[in-house]
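Record 1 of the preview.
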Amino acid sequence: MSLNPDDPIVVAVNVASAANVRRTLLALCTDERLRQYTLDFLYRIEPRLGAEEQGRKEIRPEDRRLEDRRLEEWRQDQLRWQEVRKRLEAELAVERAKLRAVEEVAARWDNMTKAQRADNKTKEIRKGTNAVRSSDNITASNPSNTTATITTKTHCYEYRSHKVASAHHDQPLTYPERHRLFPDDGGVNPQHPTARQAPTQTIPGNNPLKKSSSTNKRKAASTLAVCAQCKEAFDTADKNDSTACQHHDGDLECDEESDVWCDYYDGHDGPSRYSEEAKELYPGGFIYSCCGKDGEQDGCRVGRHDVSWTRTKWG
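->
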């Protein structure tokens, strides 16, 4: 049995363009052949819509309950994950707040350390200035204290001119110097022609003090030498056994990870950490390339003193 093209439903299906209109017409089709014709028409016009309508089946009640249960479980899982996410975000916010607090404390400590170092340097400078002033005041107020007078005057005179005779045994004291250093000593007549000569030097070139010093120097130069390995003075007359010299074969290198350089700023706290002066002032901040020990530890090599370097400390 064929469908009548003039049937109002067939005409309506043929002229329908909207998907909702087509679904409505499909629902009105009670005749099976008309319904099949409508599905074929929809499949030709819109294959996706036709396949969807053709493959749709009626959902059973038990399947609907299963779908509802699965949907409810999915919703519960979403709620639990939202709670877990909120808790993790709260913990992360707390940790970030702690980190900011630690950074603020570290910044304040660094600023306080810099200010404290500057304050300590200022105090040291003031302390040294006050010590010099107090020593001058003690000397001026108590001239009878010969020891304090000699010490203070000798220090000042060495600092200003470096020509104090007491620092050099081979140079005699002149009368102004003796009078300045020993004001209570009246054994020298300022009017005597030989007042500016040393009391012990009566013949030019015959200074016993100078002669003794030269003898000791020649003796020291003949028996003492400096080891080329450990850079220490040793007596060549002593026994030079296999355990006499303890030294390092490597060079001192700056240890950037040492605690000595934690709060150290080159040029502000002292010389550059790569200079030779820093090796003498802060040996703990350097390590030997041969063994990895710091500069304050003993040598890693033990042997005899190297006498090939004959230059002495006094030669």
